[in-house]
Amino acid sequence: MSINQNIPNVAEKPNEAPMTKQAAALAVEAKREDIIVEEGKTVGLPYSDNPKFKLRNVEVFYGEDRAIKDISLDIARNEVISFIGPSGCGKSTFLRCLNRMNDSIDICRVKGQLMLDDVDIYHSKRDVVELRARIGMVFQKPNPFPKSIYDNVAYGPRIHGLANRKSDLDEIVENSLRKAGLWNEVKDRLDATATGMSGGQQQRLCIARAIAVSPEVILMDEPCSALDPIATAKVEELIAEMSESYTIVIVTHSMQQAARVSHRTAYFHLGHLVEVNETDKVFTSPEHELTESYITGRFG
Amino acid sequence: MTDQRSQAEIVRQSLKRRYRKERRFRLYGMTAIVIALASLFILFADIIGKGYTGFIKTTITLEVTLDSEAMYLDDPTDADQRSMADFNAPIINALSDLIPGVENRAAQRELSRLVGSYGASQIRDMLRANPELLNTTQTMTFLAHDRVSVYVKHADNPNYSIRLSEQQQAWVDELVEKGVIETSFNDVLFSSGDSREPSNAGILGAVVGSLLTMVVTLVIAFPVGVAAAIYLEEFAPQNRFTDFIEVNINNLAAVPSIIFGLLGLAVFIGLFGMPRSVPVVGGLVLALMTLPTIIISSRAAIKSVPPSIREAAEGIGASKMQVVLHHVLPLAMPGMLTGSIIGMAQALGETAPLLLIGMVAFIVEIPDGFFSSATVLPVQVYLWATSAEQGFIELASAGIMILLTFLISMNALAIWLRKRLERRW
Amino acid sequence: MPNKKDDVYGDHISAKFNDELTELKTQFLNMGGLVESQVEQALQALVDSDGQLAEQTRLKDKVVDEMETNLDEEAILVIARRQPTARDLRLVISVIKMVADLERVGDEAKKIAKMAIKLTEEGQAPRGYVEVRHIGTHVLSMLHDALDAFARLDADQALRVMKEDKRVDEEYQAAARALLTFMMEDTRNISRCMMVMWVLRALERVGDHACNIAEHVIFMAKGEDVRHTPMEEAERVVGR
């Protein structure tokens, strides 16, 4: 049932009529109160035979606030999985648990079992630096360092000591830029400052920077939310290519994007993982009514 | 439709009122700016008006015959003979030649007083260095006496009283006419230390003292301040203790500067037994005073580094230290430097704490190290402003102008650095 | 599972989107109603030998064609504008397909009307009208139920329609056999009997189209395609 992929995606869904906002908000409230998600009961296919990440009963607290409520999920090797859900549903928080980006927030606590290749991510002796070298991250806003294009890509390999000679480093930089589809655009101006590039180029540079340390997993936190449709299309194309060699987890607000790029889609709702399913299934006939309401634009 | 029209009417009426309000508000602002600019203009005009003559010296150029008989001097290399000799004689003779009819000794003495009190020693020093010049005639330029200088520069100024006799005034007029008394740019001001004689007083000693003090301040305050700011912003846990420290740093910035002087007196001089009046102690005291400013501005600079850059570095696996050293610090540096320079400028203009640690002494020598007695620019201005001699009035104003030049150039440097180093992200 | 507490097509955040989907649904039901009445009238004209009514019925087909074009256009616009997903996507896609079915039903009605005109011109009413009336009523109720199932997104009813289709097929077989015997009895009746045969054939086709619509309704309600699966599979899907 892959009808969905043939649909032309001309533009993002436009925001609509202010007059209905109040009514819609009331309806949403009513719905949210009516539907109680059973804790830890995820509909669909949350588990995998060949997991890269094995996440069991994950809970995240911000102080007293329980932001993630008993989530269990497998992320398979070389799969592209997208996290969708309304704002504040915990999808970004959950993503940031995977490479311990939440560590720098003092009040944030993570409970449960998070395993990367059967090794505990949150083990007290686990080195965060090593973990992050294995799990690259791309952020919402393109955030290149205010340095040259070359230095941006070379930074990771340099601090991890991945290249001893200049020629090795040059090779890593070129390969990474090639993989990010940026080499032809920037090969003549590697010394130019990265902040002078266009938004889409900057984001692809950030991807190149992430893959320069040859990670196994790439986490993407709304990577296209600041990009125009053409740049978005390029990044999505890149994600499709990269899925051959990396496990990719992508948080996105654009459901069409999730539909286009990912193999599986996970729907988050108020800290619960409501449904995980094949993307084709989620966007044609989701199992959970909350998922259905969200992806058809009935709230969110 | 009628409803809408009346609404438009209401809006139009209120518009008038709103525009009036806006105009009035703009007027207040402009008035404030005009007042500020006017005060500044008056201040500058006053200082420059009073001070520009400080940059002018009055000289007397004479053909002096270094007659050994007149000076009672046979051998200029002999120290005993030099101390007995009358080096004033060639000056008196030269002046007498120029103005005939001055016969009696009292009048001649009056005449010789037109030349500054260091005229004789100028001849002595020249002869000591070049004994072969004895019994020759030399063209020498002497600094005119302070009173002559005041008369030449300020004869018409009611603020100055002329302390020359009628006779002397006539002589000066004659000598000016003959081109013997001339005015020129006051290089003495920039090349010598302080003096009791306004004509011979210079500001170089104070400038060097200020520079040495500032070096000490910078070397101590900048690294300490930046390190403290980085620790507080990046590493310190958020708890009551760090809150307490933060509050106290802010309080410290508001402490009157003279308190730092008392502290310096008690701790550095009293406890550690450091010498008084030296740039090291002055620098230490001023460093303490500027530290809060530097810490506060450095913290602001660190805070303004976008978190996305931090995240990017962390996400790629940089350690905390690498994040700070490779990314935060370079981006915060312009802000930190600007804050520091402004703090230093503040310290440069500071007088009160330095008075307490003895940097207010009368020091003729130009300081040659961090431990030699020195004074600083604002203190020098203070000293001159409180001196009795009339010639010091214009020097004080000239000193203020020099100090202002330093301050303005430091601020300009701060702006230039910020513009230069600031990177866009 | 549809949200039982709400209207089947509950409120979107975008009211305009809601309106567009409702419009699509309403237009489809209107078209369904028109086609339904077309079949009914054609049968009436045939049974009553009413040439005028048959002519009217034939002309209605133009309106049906126009409605088909409009609905397709509307559906394409909804896809282009809203990129519907899940339930909405299934609705739009199903409407596009069901519209084709309805249009064919309209064509069949036109065919019946043509036969009615011819048979009226021939005069005498031949045998087989009983079967026609019987199967016609059956098929009409199927069509009606299918449209009703669509309106209420009722998978159970849709399943019943699918089962009915089997019976219509059987009835058609029986009627065809009866007519064949009649033709063998009297060869002069062959041409007219053939016309009745075509009418029966057309009615059987209408039943098939109603069945198709029912299958789409199940797809809309359950998200699973039951078109080329055995009946047990459809039962399993609906029973879920």
TrEMBL record, chain C:
Location(s) in or outside the cell: Cytoplasm
Single Gene Ontology BP annotation: intracellular phosphate ion homeostasis
SUPFAM superfamilies: PhoU-like (SSF109755)
Pfam families for this protein: PhoU
Keyword hit for Transport: yes
Family label: Belongs to the PhoU family.
Subunit record text: Homodimer.
Protein name in UniProt: Phosphate-specific transport system accessory protein PhoU
Function: Plays a role in the regulation of phosphate uptake.
InterPro entries, per the entry: PhoU (IPR028366), PhoU-like_sf (IPR038078), PhoU_dom (IPR026022)
Keyword Transport set for record: yes
GO cellular component: a single term: cytoplasm
Keywords: Cytoplasm, Phosphate transport, Transport
Species this chain originates from: Marinobacter excellens HL-55
PhoU domain mapped to chain residues: 29-115, 132-217
